[in-house]
Amino acid sequence: MMTLGSMLAEVAQRTPRKCAVKFQKRKIPYRELHEAVNNVAHGLLSLGLQKGDRVGILCENRPEYIYTYFAVVTFGGIVVPINTFLTGNEIAYIVNDCEVKVLVTSNKFLRTVQPVLGQMPTITHVVVVDAAAEQSEHVAFETLMASHPADTPAAEVSPEDLAVFIYTSGTTGKPKGAMLSHGNLLANARDSSEAIHVVAKDKFLLFLPMFHSFTFTVCVLIPLFKGATILLLGSVKAFDDIKRALLFDRATIFIGVPAVFNVLANKSLPRILKYIHALRVFVSGSAPLPSPVIGKIEQKFGVPLCEGYGLSEASPVVAVNPRFGVRKAGSVGPPIPNVQVKIVDEQVTELPVGEVGELAVQGPNVMQGYYHLPEDTAKTLVDGWLLTGDIAKLDEEGYIYIVDRKKDMLLVRGINVYPREIEEALYTHPKIVECAVIGVADEAKGEVPKAFIVVREGETLSEREVREFCKQNLATYKLPKYIEFRPSLPKNATQKILKRDLRSGSEGS
């Protein structure tokens, strides 16, 4: 198998003039992309880096992010993508945990990092992507690229070598670095592209933050692996840019997360858009997608929306509903090619079809382990299977149905209650645009559900109406005991609802 660097080199040699990345009004052909990557690789090596060294990337979406990522893996370094929404202290924790030597950032995020640089002793250089060479106290990116050869640096890199440390979101304690190899990432790009039938003429719309594993694998590695084109936008908030990319750049594959599709489903758009866009498929990942949203999107655009499932520890894609063939409501689809799944109990014993338990995954995409955390690795990787922490079931045809996160499950009078089931019911109410359900302590029942609800703009909804609606759709023990209306729900950078924030504000409900 190839490495990430050799993959890009091969595509650049095969289609040198084809547009690899379009950013703003600039088109970057594959040859130029590959040469820029080599320039940066030589520049980083000139700073004293060598194989195995870690390079952190803390930067908004821009071509330099892609240059840096591929430059690092080309000489055998390890990329550490850093969440741009973190505080300085949170960034310092990640940098120190894996001993980042060079940090590549922008002026915007340098302001966050500068006050804590003294707390990160392993950093030898900070590279600033948008700094003028003569004005920067750090290394300017243009200096890094200048006066360096465009040929590939000599390096012995194999598919088994580590390429990326993806730090988990830390919802259960401190973030952990999931170690992914070249082979893990390339296998996932190859098998995922087969599952959604990607071809070289496709144009991927990329507006989600690139530090997220879902974004980089699906929106960068897959299109580059297939020799397709990336339409790179600066932000998910640039809705006018998204519309322009749909209409004028002729995007064919739209990758999003549930919050984006929720907005798109409820946003007023010109009716003609349904008939003049070039989209072939929508793909949703990163968090569960409410079934009603899928129907609205497909009706509005006339193309399939395929929900997928994955986790950082699996590079990250595990399953996706097929573009062609059977797409089942409520399912995230069958596993992608070369990936196996099973449902297990607390003793990691396989359960029969239809029974609910923890989803376990096996395949070439599964991580090598957590960086310097052997005990956590041993708990998560058991006999070659990755225990996902997600509660799920399989049907006779191998389709996966995610029931909920293991840690989100409630015990109401000793009965398992899954918040997602309650949320799915609430999402069918025409006045509810967003919701989340958590468990809160209850003396009589142990735990009870609490629902947080965002009402559609211009509509009104009472607690009594919600309760009556729930009674028609849910068993008595699943009914929310508490209901709280909010103008919005807290979310992270990839628009996942932060249930931990809702829990911390609901103690004593």
Automatic annotation (TrEMBL):
Residues 421-496 form the AMP-binding enzyme C-terminal domain. Keywords: Ligase, Membrane, Transmembrane, Transmembrane helix. Residues 9-371 form the AMP-dependent synthetase/ligase domain. CDD domains: FC-FACS_FadD_like. Pfam families: AMP-binding (PF00501), AMP-binding_C (PF13193). SUPFAM superfamilies: Acetyl-CoA synthetase-like. Signal peptide: none annotated. The chain crosses the membrane at residues 204-225, 245-265. The keyword Transport does not apply. The keyword Ion transport does not apply. Gene3D superfamilies: 3.30.300.30, N-terminal domain of ligase-like. GO terms for molecular function: acid-thiol ligase activity. Belongs to the ATP-dependent AMP-binding enzyme family. This is Long-chain-fatty-acid--CoA ligase. It comes from candidate division KSB3 bacterium.
